[in-house]
Amino acid sequence: MEKNLNVDPNNRIVSFADELLILVDESDNEIGYETKEKCHQGEGILHRAFSIFLFNDKHELLFQKRSDDKLLWAGYWSNTVCSHPRKGETMETATQRRLMDEMGIQAELKFLFKFQYQAKFKSIGAENELCYVYIGKHNGPYYPNPNEIKDLMLIPFDKIEEELQRNGKYYTPWFKLEFQRMLNEFRDQIYSL
Hints:
Structural class: alpha+beta
Radius of gyration: 16 Å
Number of helices: 5
Strand order of the largest sheet: 7-4-10-9
Shape: globular
Number of strands: 11
Low-confidence stretches: 1-9
Strand content: 35-45%
Distance between the termini: 11 Å
Largest sheet: 4 strands, mixed
Mean pLDDT: 93
Oligomer: single chain
């Protein structure tokens, strides 16, 4: 199921340094809450996150180029949407909220896996996340929020690996980790969308 809404999220501020994120232990048990700003300082504090990969009928993945205003990995290419559930939010609520906030759409999502990673960005801060990964299908149109997204592009799933070999330094570290696992373990599920 996909649903395009005639919503133009342009110029809406949807990310806040003081939003409370969900802190977790390595077993994904909630252990408290902290601001997004503090969660990404230093080596980062382990918190819950999600990544969404939207494909179209041609099995092309929709990529976003992160806004230049992002604190971490500004101007890098990444998967369709990546963010965090806030205090009191379920993953279903958070993923649909963020699809609307960033792309101006809703789409049915399928959970694939979750994993933990940590990645430092220069001396600015770090991601330290227990990340849930989802796939879905949407053929557009999209209404990207320029406060979050600088550009969009589509790449066929079977061409992403060679794109990363050529230009991997321009992609976020979590995307590269998630894509590799999808390629190794979930290719059939992507092609059956």
